[in-house]
Amino acid sequence: MTTAPTLNSVPRVKKEDTIVSWSDSEPLRVTSCISTSAACLLPAIAITALSQLYSLRQMLGCFAGFTIVFALGLIVLTQGTSSRAEIFAVAAALSVVMVVFISVPPPAKFITFVPPGSPTPSVTAIISG
Asked: What Pfam families has UniProt attached to this entry (predicted)?
């Protein structure tokens, strides 16, 4: 500790700053940015994962897993400031997107074998069989 002399020659203790305060705005802004990015990317990641699956059981398992991860991520990343109704509404919206994706069947793939030297078959020949 340092002392500063006074007029009456009684030493006084110099005040030092001992408490540091931080603003909550910067961590809150970073957390908000991360949670918003995760919320925007998760539907795209879910659809990409679902597009690689062909079994209905695998699709439904992936569907449930992504919905749970999404809801838990929102709860954790928003630090509990979101209400249950808001989290349910957002999870339901994600579910609707995934259900629409699951309900649309994948496009049929036509594989035709054309021997070398043969003319390329027309589209009507492929469809008629």
From this structure: DUF6594 (PF20237)
Tens digits of per-residue pLDDT, 15-74? 777 777 777 788 878 877 887 887 788 888 888 888 888 888 888 899 999 999 888 888
Instruction: Give the amino acid at 46.
Output: A
Distance (Å, rounded) from C-alpha 42 to C-alpha 31?
16
The alpha carbon torsion through 62, 66, 68, 70 (nearest 10 deg) reads: 180
The Cα 95–Cα 17 span in angstroms is 53
d(CA 38, CA 91): 13
CA separation for the pair 121, 129 (Å, rounded): 11
Residue 102 near residue 59, CB atoms below 8 Å: yes
Q: Rounded to whole angstroms, what are the CA distances from 117 to 121, 122, 125, 129?
A: 12, 15, 18, 20
Terminus-to-terminus CA distance in the chain, angstroms? 96
Answer left, alpha or beta for residue 9, where phi above 0 means left and psi between -120 and 50 means alpha: left
Residues in the chain: 129
